[in-house]
Amino acid sequence: MRVLAVVPARGGSAGVPLKNLAPVGGTPLVARAVRACLQAELVDEVVVSTDHPGIAEAAERAGARVVERPAELSGATASSESAVLHALDALGEDPEVVVLVQCTSVFIDPADLSAAVRRVLDGEADAVFSGTPTHEFLWTPAGAGVNHDPASRPRRQDMEPQFRETGAFYVMRAAGFRERGHRFFGDVAVQAVPARHAVEVDTPEDLEIVRALAPFVDAPEPIDVDAVITDFDGVHTDDRAYVDSEGREMVLVSRSDGMGVSLLRRAGVKVLVMSTEHNPVVAARARKLGVPVLQGLADKRTVLRDWLAIENLDPARVAYVGNDVNDLGPMAEVGWPVAVPDAHPRVRAAARVVLTRAGGDGAVRELCDRVVAARPVLEEPAPAAPPRLRFRPVSIGDVPVGDGEPVYVIGEIGINHNGDLDIARRLIDVAADAGCQAVKFQKRTPAICVPEAQKGQIRQTPWGEMTYLEYKERTEFGADEYRQIAEYCDERGLHWFASPWDVPSVEFLEDMDVLTHKVASAGVADHQLLRALAATGKPIILSTGMSTLREIDEAVEILGTEKLIMMHATSTYPLPPEEANLRTITTLKERYGVPVGYSGHERGLQISLAAVTLGAVCVERHITLDRTMWGSDHAASLEPSGLEHLVRDIRIIEQAMGDGVKRVFPGEEAPKARLRRITV
User: Fold this and answer.
1) How far apart are CA 117 and CA 129, in angstroms?
2) Phi-psi region of 464 (alpha: psi -120 to 50; beta: other; left: phi over 0)
3) Bond prior to 574 in cis (omega within 30° of 0)
4) In the chain, N or C terminus with fewer CB closer than 10 Å?
5) DSSP states of 198-241 as a string?
6) Which residues share a beta bridge with 517?
7) DSSP labels for 432-446?
8) CA–CA separation, 623 vs 432, rounded Å?
9) For 588, phi and psi rounded to 5 degrees?
10) For 57, what's the count of Cα atoms within 13 Å in the CB-facing half-sphere?
């Protein structure tokens, strides 16, 4: 061994209790010192001399050997030299160079340390210490100049710099150190280090200073976490809002953030957006990124704790990115508090990492790249069972729907609004609050759709006795209502579209500029309707209830497959489990080569959730404010709490499905070490 680094680290400290275990930038001081030594190219081994078991444990975790320091060398009057000499004797080592490294110097550049070692190895000096250049004038308490004549004050530019000893490291020829018992002997030289690296920790105030400086001084490093949680305003955006003449907000985001989030998801890192405000802009951006969002949070810290518990995440392996004081609570809960560069000063001081890119200018992408850099490269899976069928997604607006994408959840309002625009708005709120991506209505021209034999039949309705045709006309929305629906869905960050039941309804919806059209199961054999829909050139969602494969073949022949999403459905209301036939999802994928979802009419959630595990790329369920309301579809609909649970459980299933690559996960390592029995 040519070069041995010794880090004395007592448990006692007069200024800061257990100072050497105090974290700075998320890492204890002793571990920071060990890390700097291990990263120095010319240091062969690192030893920590300590009398404290906690410090010993931290040192070993950081990669150092530990020498137990005797009590007589651990008091406040014991010198650092005595600890280094004891370590040399205890190890029985005879290195050419010994390095004394002090934990209290927080910012040690491994390159500076190696440069000092090189000067001793090359014979330039017998001892080299770290010092920072200074032009300070020093005075005695009596008012006398120490390094200057007060009567003749030279200009700074006329002065040769002097060097202030930083205390970070002392590199010594080992034989000379043993002989003299002191760190300064023979030819002594100074290794200049920048002032930003020359801060020592002796008092609680010093500790506050280095914690504030750490995000700016520490070199960027990979961030090894299992989840990334972000604030929205000021992190995904530049914290400004643009308001048009109609009061609609727009924000500036970075396209590069989207790719970063996609890389995180592919690497198996969970992502969540949290926002104090309830804003459709937040929902729209989260939908675009394909990540869950929690909005309108009065207490982000409590919500974060609950989410971490639900996801079974170790807070120490979670990053939270914030920019303002309401982020301090959640930042304190995680192992990697992160701030954007223009964050509030208190937030920057609390951060373990301060990013270099501002919110809206790639801050999220910068963090994502550092997280992905810490992920291990996965082994290629061995050939196994045939892969699950995967087909190119179909884009609905700005959202891709297909394999490998988040399940597109549609809350079908249908005719459950009972012709009441207020009920429709309340149901839109239900879908948005639950986390759906879209709501769907049904659009008819009653004079065309109602069979002649039924038009004159008398019905008892909440609005009194009327013919069936009058009832259907009474509950149908017109252009004014749908314009208000479109505007409200935009405010809530939702897509909206409808199932047209006749050609005039297709033309009506085209005038409304919907993003897509849905073919109800009743329309599969209406070729005139299908041709009108195909002519729009828009994505088509085709429900397949009460249809034979031959009927579906004929429909697909008209619609084509380029922009087609198919929905497995059974048109029994409510649907009994024995008629669900969920394996048809795979049958439709194999036969038509398109993404396939599920449109359910069952009571409860189990069948819809099972459809997701079988590969359904979207799920549509009827929704209602109350299943006892008047109307034919309410009984087979989900109430608000049921819809909320459905979306929550779909997102959990998405995470649980994984990628099919068999590996040992981090959470298995400890049980494996404890329980695995290997025999030959």
Assistant:
1) 10
2) left
3) yes
4) C
5) --B--SHHHHHHHHHHHHHHSPP-----SEEEE-STTTTS-S--
6) 540
7) HHHT-SEEEEEE--H
8) 12
9) -65, -40
10) 4
Q: For the range 132-139, what are the long-range contacts, defined as Cβ-Cβ under 8 Å and sequence gap of 24 or more? A: 132/163, 132/164, 132/166, 132/192, 132/193, 132/194, 132/195, 132/197, 132/198, 133/161, 133/162, 133/163, 133/164, 133/192, 133/195, 134/161, 134/162, 134/163, 134/164, 135/159, 135/161, 135/162, 136/162, 136/164
CA-CA distance, 517 to 534, in Å (whole number)?
Answer: 10
What are the contacts of 268-271 at 24+ separation with CB within 8 A? 268/375, 268/658, 268/659, 269/225, 269/226, 269/227, 269/228, 269/371, 269/372, 269/375, 270/226, 270/227, 270/228, 270/311, 270/313, 270/655, 271/227, 271/228, 271/229, 271/230
Q: How many Å apart are CA 212 and CA 358, to the nearest integer?
A: 18
Question: How far from 240 is each of 232, 235, 254, 294, CA to CA, in Å?
Answer: 11, 11, 13, 20
Q: Specify the residue for token string 């010092």.
A: 131
Residue 229 · residue 292 · CB < 8 Å: no
Alpha carbon 68 to chain centroid, angstroms: 42
Q: Angle of helix 640-657 relative to helix 606-613, nearest 10 degrees?
A: 20
Q: Can you read off the two tokens belonging to residue 546?
A: 């009460």
Query: Can you read off the two tokens belonging to residue 518?
Result: 């849905």
Element (H, E) at 549: helix 549-559
Q: Buried b vs exposed e over 414-449: b needs ≥16 C-beta within 10 Å?
A: bbbbbbeeebbbebbebbbbbbbbbbbbbbbbbeeb
Alpha-carbon distance of 330 to 302, in angstroms, equals 8
| Distance between start and end Cα atoms, the chain | 38
For residue 248, what pLDDT is reported? 78
Which of 116, 107, 132 has the alpha carbon at shortest distance from 5? Answer: 116
Joined tokens for residue 412:
């079908």
Name the 3-class secondary structure at 297.
coil
582 CB contacts (<8 Å, ≥6 apart)? 568, 598, 607, 610, 611, 614
Place of tokens 């500029």: 513
Mean pLDDT of 293-311: 87
Whether 581 and 546 have beta carbons less than 8 Å apart is answered as: no
Q: Tell which residue, 181, 174, 170, 163, has the closest CA to residue 81.
A: 181
Distance CA 6, CA 57 (A): 16
H-helix or E-strand containing 564? strand 564-569
Amino acid at 117: V
- Give the chain's length: 680
pLDDT digits (tens, 9 = 90+) for 418-437: 899 999 999 999 999 999 99
Contacts of 226 (CB under 8 A, 6+ apart): 269, 270, 313, 314, 317, 318, 666
Q: Are 353 and 223 in contact (CB under 8 A)?
A: yes
pLDDT digits (tens, 9 = 90+) for 639-678: 999 999 999 999 999 888 887 778 877 778 778 777 877 7
Cα gap 602→60, rounded to integer Å: 58
Angle at 595 between CA 594 and CA 600, to 5 degrees: 125
Beta bridge pairs of residue 132: 164
> Pick from 167, 234, 144: which is nearest to 8 by CA?
167
Sheet containing 162-173, strands listed edge to edge, beginning at the edge strand earlier in sequence: 65-68, 45-50, 3-8, 97-101, 162-173, 127-134, 188-192
Q: Provide the CB-side half-sphere exposure for 16 (13 A, CA).
A: 17
Note if the pTM is more than 0.70: no
